[in-house]
Amino acid sequence: MKSWTKRKRYTSFTMILGSALLAAGCTGGQGGEEAAKPQTEESGKSANANFTYPMPGNIELTYMTEALGGIPARAPIDDEYQKRTGIAIKHLGGTPMTDQKFSLLLASGELPDIFLNTWLQYPGGPDKAVEQGYILKLNDLIDQHAPNLKKALQEHPEIDKMIKTDNGTYYAFPFIRSEAGRVYGGPIIRKDWLDELGLSVPETIDEWHTVLKAFKEKKNAAAPVTFRTMFLGERTAGFAGAYGVMGNYYVKNGKVVYGYLEPEYKEYLKTMNQWYKEGLIDKDFASIDAATVDKKMTSGVSGATFGWQFYIEKYNAAAQAADPKANYVAAPYPVLKKGTKPEFGQLDNAYAGTSSAAISAKTKNVEAAMRWLDYAYSEEGSMLNTFGIEGVTYVLKDGKPVYKDLVVKNPEGLGSDQVMMQYAHGTNFPMIQRDNHLPAKYQQTKDALDIWRNTNHAQHLLPPVTPTAEEADEMASIMNDINALVKEAELKIILGAEPVEAYDKYVEQMKGLGIERALEIQQAAYERYLKR
């Protein structure tokens, strides 16, 4: 394997964390290449000075992800990873932490060597998973076998703070988002329809109402706005953010609050109910899937939705084949008063807990699992995970990666993101994400993140707190019932099955189920986090 110390580098590993560092709240400006300090230690070296990749022994490890679905087809990135690390990975499909199958897996004792999952959601918390003997505590193992991760955490304590529990336990190799990667979703709208109707991209709730009525009455859109229930106000603020609230927990003036308890949430539901009565919201929104939303957005049934950034490119590509004038763009998160800044939008923590790789306590080759995971945090691993395979997906020009035609002008017509899913681990993998600046065919896709990022959401984001095992068990008991109640209340009121005034009853039910105790637990965990 070529040593990265023997060639001109694009950047030092210190810069891999550059964007994530900003996300964690560290001070200092963004450094360019001129600010990067050259790495003096060869990528692949470890605390054990005699270790280099690839690892000998023809080792095979089993690997389970959190994503539902069958076993993924082997991709070029899998072969390249095996070649570089010397470790073969056998994929076992996916089982989310919240799926009952995950509990059955643990009970069976037939555990994979590496679990990729959201360990913050483990019943009782990550400490409990270690205590029960399912996964390994990694503290000493990081010192012994993970020099790349260890170095990154030493240099960036704010990232280190996020990925351990209050008692200092490291339980998984983390997926850390870059600053740009923390925002990836928001409102999407048919700009060509707006232009045809002489309307501007809506900014306020009143403007949205005007636009959706026009879509219904003048464009004959059967469902002027369509979306899945996950976009009501939990994954993104949706329209709720205009009222200064969002579903789930967040921070307000130093205190943890639960958005569904706030009086403004009732006002938001009142508006959604009115829009539903007027036929402005998709009558099927409570039950539709992503494919149905896509079909409605590209067939003229709907003119607006909430979705992820890549939806814009996907919609434009699909619709423009039939109608070259079709133009999907990002819209800002709405407000009540024009000229004000939205309080909420969509924003993830640099470490949200997702795609975190824990190692089974029953694995027969701990060092191999550690080495395979640690490779992603090396400079060489970061380049591979971000830009793919040199000479295949990119070449270096003046020390900078430039994508090849396989990516930017794919002969099979694949989008750049589709190509890179085969040749790199850009997301949903234990790594420190860095911006890859994938070329977008549509300017609208490039503009989306800046539009959606313009909110005050960062002031309200609850960090990845870790309640104690006892607190986590109590929280789970409380929130299982409350989560179901909230979803029931939202849908009944929006659909008109119950009047808006019924929400007061649901708030009292939440209190009866223990939401105030849950808030106490979250507040205590938040205060402990701040003291880490």
From TrEMBL:
Extent of the signal sequence: 1-23
Q: Superkingdom, according to UniProt?
A: Bacteria
Question: PROSITE patterns in the record, alphabetically?
Answer: PROKAR_LIPOPROTEIN
Provide the alphabetized UniProt keywords: Cell membrane, Lipoprotein, Membrane, Palmitate, Signal
One Pfam family from the record: SBP_bac_1
Among Gene3D superfamilies, the record links this protein to: Periplasmic binding protein-like II
Q: Where is this region: Disordered?
A: 28-49
Query: Which residue ranges have biased composition labelled Basic and acidic residues?
Result: 34-44
What this protein is called in its record is Family 1 extracellular solute-binding protein
